[in-house]
Amino acid sequence: MKIKIINISNHALPHYETNASAGMDLRAYLNTPVTLKPLERTIIKTGLFLELPVGYEAQIRPRSGLAAKKGITVLNTPGTIDADYRGEIGVILVNLSQDPFVVNDGERIAQMVIASHERAEWHEVKELSQTTRGEGGFGSTGTQ
Q1: CA 16 to the chain's CA centroid
Q2: CATH code for position 83
Q3: Residue 132: inside a domain
């Protein structure tokens, strides 16, 4: 699939690191480093603008290494970039650690997955079909 992209940063376009990668790393586009204090959140710009085809979204997800090693994650994960959005991609990072974290220009801050989606058409009814699970949720299927 070909997707139109504008890159105003001085970084390479997002790319797949391996043949089987689902996501592409996004890099911070900053004039000066940004320090995230513990429990602080901020939007980090990427310098990227997309034109996605209708029926597709770009999902913004945390990088597992940043989350596991530094406690840095994407706050609204997965974030969604809709096909009709034309603004710069920004990533809402949050620092869940007890230590300040410095985001530098060019640092890999999140990953982006391009995914197709369906549009729902509601059919209002008076009742739903029965299942074995029924209304059980939030751990009702057990822990093992």
Answers
A1: 15
A2: 2.70.40.10
A3: no
Could you tell me how many residues make up the chain? 144
Q: pTM of whole model > 0.90?
A: no
Is the separation of the CB atoms in 91 and 26 below 8 Å?
Answer: yes
Distance CA(53)–CA(44), nearest Å, equals 25
CA 39-45-47 angle, to 5 degrees, is 165
CA separation for the pair 73, 71 (Å, rounded): 6
**In which domain, by residue range, is 61 found?**
22-116
Q: Is residue 136 part of a domain?
A: no
Nearest of 47, 43, 25, 26 to residue 34 by alpha carbon: 43
Token pair 């620092």 is found at: 95
Give me the number of domains the chain comprises.
1
pLDDT tens-digit profile of 5-23?
A: 999 999 999 999 999 999 9
